[in-house]
Amino acid sequence: MAVVTETAGDSRQRALQQELRELVDVVGPAPLVDLLLERSFQLNATDIHLDPTPTGLRIRLRVDGLLHDIIELPGEITSQIISRLKLMAGMNITEKRLSQDGHISGATLRASRDIRVGSGPTIHGERLVLRLMPDETVFTKVEDLGLNAHQLQLINGALKKPYGLLLCVGPVGSGKSTTTYALLDQLNSPHRSIVTLEDPVERRIESINQIQIDPRINFNFADALRGVLRQDPDVVMVGEIRDAETAHIACRAGLTGVRVLSTLHANDTAATIDVLREFGIPPMFIADAVNCIVSQRLVRKVCTHSREIYHPDEAECRYLDISPDFADTVDLVRGVPAPVNFGTGYSGRSAVFEVLPIDARLRHAILSETPVTQLRQIAIDEGLITLEKAGLQKVREGITTLDEVHRVLLSSII
């Protein structure tokens, strides 16, 4: 049995490999799968990848946004492991030619976290990816998200408006759902009727009506949103705006006295306007309906238990807007690879934000169909703290490193 060690020296990784090796030879697939899921939760993994190879089944865990090789299981037990997980997820174990989606409930696992399962064919056999959902009992407060004081003030101002859209944008895995739930938790009040439309419902929130979207019965976001708007809501959270129809209905809702929270895939705040334009939403609707756009990314935090302090070199000073003459007075931190941080020097993640309130000048520019590059420059002229600036500030504060900000934010511009 081949063992792959991407982060050599990590005792937690070796311990998991050793446990899996010992179980392979003495037990069936069920205890092996149970151990893998249990340890993955303990290691704060967000995803488990099970990829078939010519010789077996490669298992990787995504921790703090990066995949780590754990082990390659022998080929003779691959089909048993895949079938076991598909059974737990309520999937058709005989169908291996098409992609499937499944769900393992927390009740099945005797845990407070669910697992979403996706399968698909490859040239070497069937592949599974497991998304370990967040603990539904744990909520992050808005003030704990990682916003600076000015950004927090802008978001709180947008939340106080009686109607309009507040959009959280970014790529998959950037923390949009966590931010949206935090905003929703802040709005949660006995005096408000709050409804969410989600696919899936990731966290249960007391006193909020949560609706599960189900495409299998043609119950989509647009249909659900139409129905909810006839039920006297004060706040509606749409899990994701995926199509033009949902975008149009959400904008109309924001114009008719409803506060709407939603997520969208866009690179940054200004690019969100272009996405809405591509959905065919008239400029007047965009300008009047959208109150605030929040773009975000997740960066890994320097390990608090294994780190070192250093002074920036000339290139780092240039990126951080620090005079090289004062480099010796500036303390930056970087992680030291160790077992406690999975051999990476990082542990945990923090969000960096770009918060764009739609003010009078931007509304006029949107109505004038100003190109997105000019919209962004207008926002910067009015004091927008860009994702890049927010990331570099976290470097100066000793939260993350310049290498990490380059990896997540700056690779396309440096």
UniProtKB/TrEMBL annotation:
Residues 229-243 form the Bacterial type II secretion system protein E domain. The lineage of its organism: Bacteria, Pseudomonadati, Planctomycetota, Planctomycetia, Planctomycetales. InterPro entries: P-loop_NTPase (IPR027417), T2SS/T4SS_dom (IPR001482). Gene3D superfamilies: 3.30.450.90, P-loop containing nucleotide triphosphate hydrolases. It comes from the Bacteria. CDD domains: PulE-GspE-like. Belongs to the GSP E family. The gene is xpsE_4. The keyword Aminoacyl-tRNA synthetase does not apply. GO terms for molecular function: ATP binding; ATP hydrolysis activity. It comes from Planctopirus ephydatiae. Keywords: ATP-binding, Nucleotide-binding. This is Type II secretion system protein E. One of its GO terms (cellular component) is plasma membrane.
